[in-house]
Amino acid sequence: MGGRAMEERTQAMAAGEAAEELPKAWNPAEGEPEARRIWEEADLFRAPEDGRGRTGLRFSIVMPPPNVTGNLHMGHAMDNTLQDILIRWHRMRGDATLWQPGTDHAGIATQHVVEVRLAQEGLERRAMGREAFVERVWRWKDEYEANILRQLRRIGASPDWSRLRFTMDEGLSRAVREVFVRLWERGLIYRGDYIIQWCPVCGTALADIEVEHEPVEGRLYHVRYPLLDEEGHATGEALEIATARPETMFGDVAVAIHPGDPRYRHLVGRRLRHPLVDRELPVIEDEAVDPDFGTGALKVTPAHDADDFAIGQRHRLEPIRVIDETGHLTAEAGRFAGMERFEARRAVVEELRRQGFLVREEAYQQAVGRCYRCGTVVEPLISRQWFVRVAPLAEKARQAVERGEVRLVPERFTRIFFNWLDGIHDWCISRQIWWGHRIPAWTCRNCGQLTVAREAPERCPHCGSTELDQDPDVLDTWFSSALWPFSTLGWPESTRELELYYPTSVLVTGYDILFFWVARMLFMGLEFMGQVPFRTVVLHGLVRDEQGQKMSKSRGNGVDPLEVVDEFGADALRWSLVIGVSPGNDQRFLREKVEGARNFANKVWNVARFARLNLGDLEAGFDDAGLPRLPEEGLRLEDRWILSRLDAVTEAVDRRLGEFEFGEAARELYDFLWGEVCDWYVEAIKPRLRQAAEADAAAQADRRTAQQVLLGVLDRALRLLHPFMPFVSEVIWQHLPHRGPALMGAQWPPALGRRDPEAEEAMGRIAEAVRSMRNLRAELRLPPSARPRFLVRRQDAELLLGEERMVRTLAGLGALERVRPGEEPAPGTFLADVAGGAELILPLEGLGDPGELRARFARELERLESELERERRRVADEGFVRKAPPEVVERSRRAVEEKEAAAELLRLRLRQLGSA
Fold this sequence. Notes:
28 helices, alpha/beta
């Protein structure tokens, strides 16, 4: 049903017509498309072009662009849910709000998945040629981008879809070229031969932070290098070195020791014979050598280790490349040439053993670097690449954070960020793939000169030749992503959007890309805009599987968020990803948590269903903000209480969202809607709402007050809930009396100024007493239809007796009476508790035989004490406490506490029934 039809139906309700009954349960499959249609018809996603809102404030977020490699994963679902909560909140508050959407071309990742698809078709990109291959990737991008955008809509994301950008669209490509050229002109981009991390499978260089290190149990091989005399003859002595990579030893050009190591000082300047090739190696000194690693003597292989490369440069040692881009040994390895590197390792070790050079091998815990995309062990190689000189950029970023121009949330990530800046290296930005932004640099075939330009030059500016070859490499994906906050707003043009919405207000993203993306956006924003790209960075954790493992395709433990949406609904997914989660902390995806979220949505749905059935004759009034008017007079205790609690939760949700405590904001709402509105207020007002039309004027006025408060509380609570559960809140709101086309466009509710500590204290005492009465009923195993009689005494009983109707309704009582002097029940004929400031007495007459109750309680106590003894022995067992998982130990300790409390209650009951 569209917004217009909804409005007509609401007008009919307000006029007093009977309300149609809502379905018994929330049906996301029907309700979610209905809500989306309402929002789209009202054009509510669009950001104000003039930057004006009701508050005069502006709020903007750039969406971390999902890769066009396939479908959304659970991390995307959480990331976009958090952003959407902030966007909907600020939009309802009246801020001019922009959520800038877009997608990322994801160079290496997308090329990899397309090549896999081509291989399944019997095709190979080199055989296709660059142009045809890139055209095929564009077709993939169009297909999967459309799929991703559909999925984002399914989970309720509400960005300004009219502003959709792609990192390789025409405008962003122009921005990339402009930034590259300017950095080149400023001396911040250079090309050179340096050691880089290389992925043999992806066939490209990687930046240092694109390498994921994992601890593995490796081997450390101790090898003898024969010592030579001045004439080059073997002396019979040898220097023992330790290496984890014997396959690289064909690239050894020296052996280094630490200058302060007295064990080898006498060998400095001497020469060693390479064990497997005809080469002499000098013994040199260098401060970089760790005397505590291995034997303290380091084989120097500049072509295949970053530290060795630096040593080689300091000592002017010529590097020898012995592993190629495919991970196979080169001709420098002699008869081992052509072997795959790990196969070669085994063969080299065997040859060293055969010739007597292998002294020993031992287990060795080492960190192995893997490609962050395909998981292949990376290979350090010397290669000609393009680099960004990051030190000047990093220093500006540090100063901006130190000055408070940008804030990291949680704050602990600030120290982590600074630590990373301290050890930062120049950024390798060239990639040896075909999908991506081609590097705007051309080499002249005639004179060999290099030209960097914004557009392809027709002639060489150095010699006039027309024979120019563009660099075949493309830029690192993160290079274009680093420009995202300003390139999406029209830079390098000076656009109105840049003026209005840059810097953006908040960036929401995972802590795992703090260095990949957040830092580089800071670098580029400060360099090209002169301002930070965002004022606050909210870093969330990862969504892991039920065992706490990182979700991945290789593990097969990923959860498709759209499958969860199909089964439980988008609101349930969103709620489960938010509630109970602390900023910056990982969480486990638990199916039962989603089920709980669905139950909560149904609880809210059912209270709305109840309200709709009881509001059909209410002539609702609305204020200028479109909020239902609330009565000022005739309020009962429960009305005053719920309005006070509404004020409290409104203030709490505002405060929590302002502090980016999404999980706590959700918890406040859950406790209010389920724990206070549904469980207490609605139950308390049922007798008032049931009063017939023939009732007297006072009763009718009381009924109308309850209706007005119920509508006012529900309307405002739905507004508070909307950012978290947009679909169910929208559909419910459309079925209640309301003003305006959509809840999404309604005003955020202000606090009412109705905090009432006296009402909250009184209602708290009543709730305590009611819970005690319910517990006593449960102990007697009374059916729900039973209406027992309770007696109360003590001076504080006046509150309970004064609200007798509400107490009887909430506790399911037949009568609530004061104990009169001389009418106290005989000992052993009642159960009692003290709660709510009064003594509560439940006479057993007509409810059960005291003797049978004593026997049952005694049996239960005997069973409980036996279980308690076993549980106590368990938690006292040091072996159990030491070996069992902490959560199991904690569960056992809680069980002891709970069973002790239950046993003590049974002893009390037996004393009340006259047993020892």
